[in-house]
Amino acid sequence: MALTVFKKPEAMSKNITHYCPGCTHGVIHRLVAEALDELGLRERTVGIAPVGCAVLAYNYFTVDFQEAAHGRAPAMATGLKRTRPDLIVFTYQGDGDLASIGTAEIIHAANRGEKITVIFVNNAIYGMTGGQLAPTTMPGQVTTTSPQGRNVAEMGYPLRVADMLATLRTPAYIARTAVHTPQMVVQAKQCIKRAFDYQARGVCFSLVEVLSTCPTNWGIAPVESTAWLEQNMAPYFPIREYKRPEEA
Amino acid sequence: MGERLLMKGNEAIGEAAILAGCRAYFCYPITPQTEVAEYLARRMPEVGGVFLQGESEVAVGYMLFGAAAGGSKVFTTSSSPGVSLLAEAMSYLAAAELPVVIGNVMRNGPGLGGILPAQADYFQATKGGGHGDYRCLVLAPASVQEAVDMMLLAFAKAEEYRVPVLLLADGMIGQMMEPVEFPVFAEPPSRYTSGHEEWATTGARGRGQHLVKTLFLNPDAAWAHNLKLKAKYDRIEANEVRYEAVDTQGEMDVLIVSFGTMARVCRTAMETLQDKGLKVGMIRPISLYPFPAQAIREAASRSRLVVSVELSMGQMVEDVDRAVQGKAPVRWYGKAGGLVPVPDDVSAAILGMVEG
Question: Which CATH class for the B4-187+213-239 domain?
């Protein structure tokens, strides 16, 4: 008897992604889809796509989607969830979208305790526009708009979003995870599933920050990128659960 | 009709939204529209609706988007500087063909300007405000009663065409109290947009994905989308022109074109001018987009002079001039900065033009 050991999640479409080789968006998409499948949420979920590399995220899911303007996904999720409280609503945002142009929207959605889930993909750079300085770019990191490397005297230090939002009293679940090793993929899956599960149970705002690689714009090979993340990003962006509903 | 009430314009606008079936209102405080927000902060919970004060008008614009794309009737109000911030979302709302109603209780500008009435957002309302080729149906009330009636029309037309509809009221309409009657419906309108089941994001249960988006990277697809929007705007231009014509029969010495509060001042000024023996008519555009160009052109062809009277430094006059097509000289009179001309100011200015 044939035993199925691996299959495409129902919440994922058959489309081949447009992401670059070595990019971890595809892994994170799959984890979201697996979580929705396993929690039985697919048919009542609506995703909000950002502006950035994941602008076309809706091509890879079989759930309903809205496409936001740059940084505004949490506001759209707010409008939808408030008027359709039975839906499961999530935003999927990168670091330029969420941590730069969308800071007001993410802070206030978190602080109001919107019953939404935010998947925040932090790869320390602007991907879609071709490798510019992000609020999360590491000190000394070369980008097309910081050709001498990020000079913290002029550009400040990288913004730690999970840490910052964890200072707010209202949000229920704030975690940072990563997908650069198989072990971390397993852990990231747990965090993402937990975040959706909390929403399904009516608990307020949940956010999972996922450290991600961008070999194309970092200018290094995919395997070296995972090492670069481990050596440079992981020490500065602690991988941990900052806030659980029990503590909220 | 129901009982006759004395109500402030802003509060009547809020109640009219509820009457239209709207159960979702997102807002940010700004004078002189804040009473709409204060009124609906009390009323929306009473009728089981959503009231939410957002962190900015920028965010409010996308709260409208999210809710409208979920099939709900949604509403916001703001005033001039706030509408500049909403303008980003208005481009997206129009591109995504979402039915929403937005009220602008105009104050004077530019910049922070002041909190007194003005009509200086005419260009912004009728020519865009946000980026790209899009239009909003723009309705301009001249009384509190008309604002109420227009709110019902606004929600109906937003649904019919799936466009943002802009209620362009000057600060005077929002702030003054007038008698008003609300229509009584045998069956209350739904809180959801009719036909939204075909396109709204409500969960892909037993069907394929619904997607509400504005990105068209393929130029052929983007061109097709622009053509689709254009066809809709052409239908609006053909079917939704609204205006009031006063004393425009026969030959005229002066044809006034004026809207909103300014048109009411012009009505009194007309009497003064008519007492002096002048034949004066007026066309009051009720829809600013689509603009009643044909009616103005026809009336202008029987007038020696056309005057656009506005609470701005001369914005609608450009559309009037374009409508008249040289059939009569076109002049502008107005005040800005929150000053509202009294009838004698208007009649004196027009008399000066006629005699000059």
Answer: alpha beta
Residue whose pair of structure tokens reads 């979580």 in the numeric block: A35
CA distance B128 to B111: 18
Cβ A79 vs Cβ B212: under 8 Å: no
Task: Give the model confidence (pLDDT) of A80-127 as tens digits.
Answer: 999 999 999 999 999 999 999 999 999 999 999 999 999 999 999 999
* pLDDT of the residue at A248: 46
| DSSP letter string, A74-96 | HHHHHHHHHH-TTSEEEEEEEHH
Query: Is there a contact between A87 and B205 if contact means CB atoms under 8 Å apart?
Result: no
Strand blocks (E) in B155-214: 164-170, 177-181, 211-212
Residue of A nearest to B212 (CA): A66
Candidate from B63, B71, B201 with C-beta closest to A65: B201
Q: Which domains does chain A have, with CATH numbers?
A: 25-146+156-247 (3.40.50.970)
Contact residues on chain B for A67, CB-CB shorter than 8 A: 211-215
Yes or no: is domain B243-355 CATH 3.30.1300.10?
no
CB contact under 8 A, B70 and A48: no
Q: Among all residues of chain A, which has the CA nearest to that of B208?
A: A62
Yes or no, beta carbons of B202 and A45 under 8 Å apart: no
What residues contact B265, with CB distance under 8 A and at least 6 apart?
B258, B309, B340, B341, B342, B343, B346
